[in-house]
Structures are given as structure tokens and as C-alpha cells.
Amino acid sequence: MAVEFRVLGPVEAHVDGRWVELGPARQRWVLAVLLVEANRLLPADRLLDHVWGDRVPSRGRDVLYGYLSRLRRVLRATGEADIVRRTGGYELVVDEGVVDVHRFRRLLADARATDDARAVAMLEQALGLWRGEVCAGLDTSWVDALRAELDRQRFTAELDRAEFRVRTGRHAEALADLSALSAAHPLDERVAAQFMLALCRSGRQADALAHYQRMRVRLADDLGADPGPSLRELHQRILTSDPALTHAVPDAGTSRSPVVPRQLPAAPALFTGRRAELARLDHTLATAPDDPAAPGPAAAGTAVMISAIGGAGGIGKTWLALTWAHRNLHRFPDGQLFADLRGFSPTGEPTGPAVAVRGFLDALGVDPRRVPPDLDARVALYRSLVAGRRMLVVLDNAATSEQVVPLLPGSPTCTVLVTGRHRLASLIDRHGTRHLALDVLDRDEGRALLAARIGADRVAGEPDAVDELVELCGGYPLALSITARNAATRAAIALREVAAELRELGLEVLDHDTDHTASLPAVLSWSLRRLTDEQRTVFALLGIAPGPDTTPAAAIALTGLSSARTRKALSALEEASLLDRRPGGRYAMHDLVRDYAGTTARATLPEDVREAALVRVMGFHLHTAHTADHLLDPHHSFLRPDPPASDVHPLPLPDAAAATAWLAAEHATLLATQHAAAALGRHHVVWHLAWTLHTFHLRRGHLRDALVVWRTALDAADHLPDPAARSCAHRNLGQAYSLLGLHEEAARHLDRALDLAVRHHDTAEQAHTHHKLALARERRGDDRGALEHARHALALHRTLGQPVMEAAALNLVGWFAARLGDYDTARDHCEAALALAGRHHDAEGKADTLDSLGLIAHRTGDHRRAVDRYRQALGLYRTLGHTYEIANTLDNAGHPHAALGERDQARAVWREALELYREQGRDTDVERVRRQLDDLDPTPEPDGQPSAADSAGERARQRAATGTPGSARRPGPASRSEDAS
């Protein structure tokens, strides 16, 4: 089935030549956006912006969802495309070869990588795809920008086609094109230059000179400027009848033509991906000063254009440089020079500039007897020979700026491309080098690389195994290439077996005993040679540090060095492309680089050095987390961990907002720290990390993480002397199970916690456990049993003199009384709880109780007061960052709004609750709120208007008025880390 999608004109689809009905105009424009952004995730908000701009209707999301649903059915019928709903938005999955805009761009790129004759055919095919205005009829800022971009590309394609026609002798066709372009772009100097050259080569020198004069006058009148140097030079060459302009062969008596070096190695045969990087290099060249190939008037300037591709060993720098160079050979007709500077090589020293420039002089045809002996004289001769020539100089594998600077031409007609693992800061600072940092391949690029090397059929036959291989390699090009080689040379082995081997053995599979250039560990090891001993030690320690990334403060604790020395080492590793600087001052390694660093640590650092480093960084994370937890909930007695070592300096967090932000940023690292502590047998660190993370986990809804850390803490509690540690672990583990709906496991752990507390006469533990048992009974539908446990908790807290916990228990009793219909008792207990929490400045306790009072008001028919109570509770929860309870209260608040007929307000709070429930993975709550929204807000008809809205809204209002909130509230300290002593 031949499928074609078109956006270069009216938005259309064709299957086997037959037009496909795509629906109303706005629906077609939704498809147009998805086609332009094919195979990329688009959030719904961005789709709305691109299609409606600032005119999104009040029910725009619903209309959009309706359009997407209908388009999905149309596209699936073609068998070539599908709209997939993913976390965060929608993605149109389609072969870009069937979309005209992507085919247009691909033809342009391919035309630049082939000979002139084929290029003309490709450009004609590309330009033939246009049928009018892009996305005709759509009027938003997004489409304006898209049209401007595509018009520029179309204009460049027309110019390139004319240039290639001139170069292949098709002057008459070129003149027809250039005459029209000249009329449309009278001030464009590249158009003028090509038109003059075509006229000259057609034997019309006088017309070419006359066109120059018209151009000069027009520039002076309209811009007050003279023609640029390139156009002036062409004019002079026409005036003097330069034979080169008409391809004349020089007489025997004339001086010998300059040698045109062609030193580039072959282009990589199986290069894939890197479209964005190639485009950036293209843009750099297109905006180069005085570039005769650049569209528009030449910019003023005399600097050599230098681009530096940086990145770790094996990331694909050389392949990118060579691919780009070969695709742009036509832009450097006077030759290309190439030197491997061997900055990171398995053998020998880096190539010195004297040796490299001598190679350039040989390539430029200099008689060996004329080569000067000293470096400065060689450089001067080299720069003289390339002056004024359009040449490319590729300097591969540079280690230092000192290697590169003597090899830089002095003429702005030359372009330089440098690759290296180091950033070469002085080149950027002193020579204006454009730095391009090369990262790993994305998933699709990784799949394309494997397909190119082991065959598309084999990749298509095991898509899951291929995805795992790309993930295990982390998109690292050399790792993917080695993996592809292993798979290609063992064709009988299934890819899932290759993936299993890589998963089990890791870097060992990517090593090679004899060919070091085909070994990832060997390639990475070359980067370490230029580091100091201290920097190598820091690199190794970062490989064993817990967590996916680190901060300078954590690195200081890990290394035991001063702040200045640690930061200097981090900067050196970043310069060497062994460490990436991320937003927020964080540093991270690629997983494979990190694995290599860990291997280096185990091979070069004594065990006691490694353990001491881990103990320091675990202490840093534990004590900073302890500070953060105290700021989140200052109203309970803390179990303090042992003091940190004297050389460990936890962060002094200023307030609860900073504490929440730090815990969120370090969450993955803190989980990894607990795992590392368990491996080292640091049982007190394991237990205290679970304790300090408990409030954060419950406030943010990280229930599965809470389950994992408390399971680990329960094992550690067996090794701790305080029996309360084990009871507390059972209690909090039971709470996590209960919140996740695993009621049998919850009951088992909570009963065990109560049994231990009674056995050890621990009244506080008994009180806290009764509180958790009450909440667990509620989730099983046993409100009377829950009320009994709540009364036990209240009585015990009163004997202990704990006013904050007494307020929580009062609220708990009031909540269950309300659920059982005893509203007077419920109101009395909750009002007492609110007053007590207020006296002790317990914001969370006040929020919990206000939510309970909202339920009481709603069930007793005072819906306006219920709305007000819920609004107050939400304000406090938002201040606390308590997203778990924000979701619950939003859910509950929708019901009194609906009962009052305030459908817009109900819709708003339920939609916000829905998003939070999704983020927290609370699937049951998600489905319930969806049903509430469906009852409140029915699915729109194809014309965007609701159907049976009044009856559906009335059903929602009546259901809300019955006094049954959507989600059960979890009153009291569900997120409180109570005193376990």
C-alpha cells in the first residue's frame, strides 16, 4: 500500500493515489503538526498552541482529544502511521519517508553528499514536492516560523540547483532559474554572483558586467552599501577575462596551477543519525564571514571559521567530522587537508605542529628542498599557500590548543574543523571557535546504527532485544558498534542472547584483548593519561559513588579533598569529556564511563580507601537528609543519627522549601546511598535513611520507594540494639503496604509492630501503631474497627503528653465519626483538633483537620462552607509541598462544587487531581476521577459541542449532593515520621 502525507501545500493524505478524507480544517492542521514533528513526543498544550495559537477555545482540550481519536482511526487504516499516547503527550509514529516535508529535507541533505549531476536530479525532485503555501489556511506563530524556515530551505535548494547546473554546463537551464531568482531577490549577492557566472559561461560577458553595475547601484540606493568582496572579485575576474571562469586550459608557458590536495579519509560507509549536529555545522558554515556560498549579503569580517567537535572517546567525533566534510566537498573546491594529531592514541606521542604542517606543505606540492627548518617559517609558508583559497582543514584527535593554533590558516576563505576530547578553551576564547559538544545517540539513532550494521530484517525481527541493546549501550556509538560487530559475526545467535550477555558482563563484552581501537575500556583509558594522579583518583571514586550523578558538595565529602581541589578536579574531568556538567551544578557520567571508572577504582585504589570515601559521602547525604526532614516536620521528636565525621560537612539548608528541593534533587542518590550502606553493613545508616525519607516519600506519593527503603531498614533493624527500631520499621512498612492497597501484607506488619510495642512496654510505639491500624482498617472498609483504633491512639497520646499527636488523634476520631454519620461527635473532635494544632503551629495538622471539617460540612449539606474548608486545607498543603494530600483534597473539593452546580470549578479541581494521581501512579484514583469528569463533562460530538450536557451535569450534581466524596481522606500524620523512641 503506497501512502503519502503532504503538508507542503494543503494538508492531504493519499493511499495508492486515492485521496483520504481527513476531516474538518482544524483536524487536518492537528495532523499537520504531528507530521512535521513526526516521531517526537508532543504535549497536548503544545499541540493546542501550534493549532489554535492564542485562540484556544474554552473546551479546546476536549476538542483536541476528539480530533486525535478520529485521526488515529484514519491513520491506522493506512497501515503506515499511528498516534500513540505516551506519558507527557502524543507521538505520531510514521516512516518519515512518506511525509513530503521530511522527504524534502532528506533530498536536500543527500544532494549535498553526491556529485553535481545527481544533486540536480535530487533537488528537482525535492522542489517538485511543493504545491503551495505550507499548511495552507493555518494561522499561528508556529506555522509562521515553520513557513519561514522551509522557505529559506526552498530558496537555498533553488540556488544550489542553479549552481550545480552551471558547474555541469547546463547554462541555459541555470539562466532561466537565475533570471527569476534575481528578479525575486534583487539584493541577494549569491544570486547575483551565480547569475553573472552563468551569463559569463554562456558567452554573455557584457550582460554579466551590466548586471553587476545594476546590482551595485541598487545596493547603494537601497542599503547605502557596496557589493561584498566576493562579488567584487568575480566582477574583476570577468573584466580581465579570467580563463578559469570559462574552464579554459592554461597555455604551456603559464605558471603551474596550484596543487589541490584531497587528504580526507573515506567517508564512513555506515554513518547514521546526527542530523541535528550536521545541521549545526551547516549553519556555522552558512553564516561564516565572506562565505561565497552563504545566502544573503556577505557578512563583514575576516576571521577563519573554526568548529570544534568535543566529546568522550568513542562518541563518534571523527565520523561526524568526516561525514560532514564529504557532504560539503563542493564548498571547498581548492582542496581539503587532514591531520591526525594523535592526542589520544594507544601508542606514541601526540603529533607536534611542526610534523603536521610539514605534511600539509607536502600535500600542497612544496618542493622538499624549499621546506623551512623552523616551525614559524613553515607556518608562514603554509598560510601563504592557502591564502585566498576555499579550503577545508580537518584537525582530528587534538589534545591541546598548542597543537592546533600553528595549523590555523590566516585566510577567511578557509574553514577549520577540529575534533578532540578536551574542550580546547583557548581556541574558544582567542579564536572564536564554535564548540559542538557531542553526546550519545538517541534511541532511534541507536536502532538505525544497529540496523545498518546487522541488517534491518534482523533488527525488525527482535525489536525488544534491539531496544535493550540500545539501552544497555546507553546510545554510546562505540559500544553500539562493538555490539553490532559481536552480533554480525555470530549471525546464528539471537539478539536476545547478545543482550543477555551484555547485561550480565557489561564492559567485559566491550573489551578486546588485541585491537585496542575496538575496545571501549582501552579507548577510555587513553583519556586518563593526561590527568594528574589526583584527578585520576577523583575519576575512580566517582565511579563508585552512590547515585546517578553528584554535586560539588557531595564530591568534596567523597574525595576528602578541599573545596578548591575538588572543583579543580571536576573541571579537569569535564574538560576531558569524562564528566558532564548538568543544570543545577550537577555532574554526571555516561553509564559506561561510570562502569569504567568503577573498574578503575577497584583495580587501582585499596579497599580501605574506597570504603573510607563511601563512608564519608554516606555521612554527608544522611546528615543533610536529617536536616531536611527536621525542616519538613519540626513537630516530632527525632531519632538522631550518630554525629558525622569531622571532615564531613552537611549542607545547612535554610528552610522547608530548600529542604524539599534538595530531597527531590537527591532522591535517586539517597536511595542508592541506602543500598550502598546495606552492602557495607552500615546498618544504622540504612535505618536512619529510611526514617529521614519517610515524610518526603509520603508527601510526594513515592509509595513504592517507601516500601523498598523500609524493607531494607527492617533487615537492618535486626542488627540494631534498640527494639523500637524494629517495631517502627514494621509499622512504616505496614503503612506503605496499606497505601498501595496490599492489605494482607499491611495487616501482618502492623500487627507485628503492635505486638513488639506491647512486649517492650513502649507506649509511644503502641499509640503510633494504633493510628496506622485505624487508617489501614479504613482502607479495607472497616470504619468501626478504624474508629476503635483511633480512640486507642487518642487515649495513649494523651497519657504521653504529646499535644501535636493528640490533635492528630482527635482529628482521626472525628473523621471516622463523620464517616459513620455521627456528625456532632465528629465536629466536636475536629474543632478541638484544629484549636490544638493551631496553638502548636502545626500546619500539617491544621490542613488535615480542615479537610475533615470540609467533609463534615459537605455531608451535612453546607456545601459552601465545605468549599471554604477545602480551600483553606489546600493552601496549607501547597505551602508544605504535600502533593499526595493535595490530590486527595482536590478530589474531595470537587463534590461540593458539583453539588452547588459549579461545574467549571469542579472540573478544574478534578483535572488537577487527575494529573497528580497520574504522576503518583494511583491508578484506581485516576479511573474514579475520570468517571467523575465524564459524568460532569461528557465527550464532545465531532463538531466540538457537548451532547446531553444538562442531563449529565445534573447526574453529577445529584451524586455530589449525596455527600459521598470520591476519595477517602487520610487524616492525621499519614506523612508524619512519629517519634519511635
Automatic annotation (TrEMBL):
Gene3D superfamilies: P-loop containing nucleotide triphosphate hydrolases, Tetratricopeptide repeat domain, Winged helix-like DNA-binding domain superfamily/Winged helix DNA-binding domain. Residues 17-92 form the OmpR/PhoB-type domain. TPR repeats lie at residues 727-760, 847-880. InterPro entries: AfsR-DnrI-RedD_regulator, BTAD, OmpR/PhoB-type_DNA-bd, P-loop_NTPase, Sig_transdc_resp-reg_C-effctor, TPR-like_helical_dom_sf, TPR_rpt, WH-like_DNA-bd_sf. SUPFAM superfamilies: C-terminal effector domain of the bipartite response regulators, P-loop containing nucleoside triphosphate hydrolases, TPR-like. GO terms for molecular function: ADP binding; DNA binding. Residues 922-934 have a biased composition (Basic and acidic residues). It comes from the Bacteria. The keyword rRNA processing does not apply. Residues 922-981 are annotated as: Disordered. GO terms for biological process: phosphorelay signal transduction system; regulation of DNA-templated transcription. Keywords: DNA-binding, TPR repeat, Transcription, Transcription regulation. Residues 99-239 form the Bacterial transcriptional activator domain. Belongs to the AfsR/DnrI/RedD regulatory family. This is DNA-binding SARP family transcriptional activator.
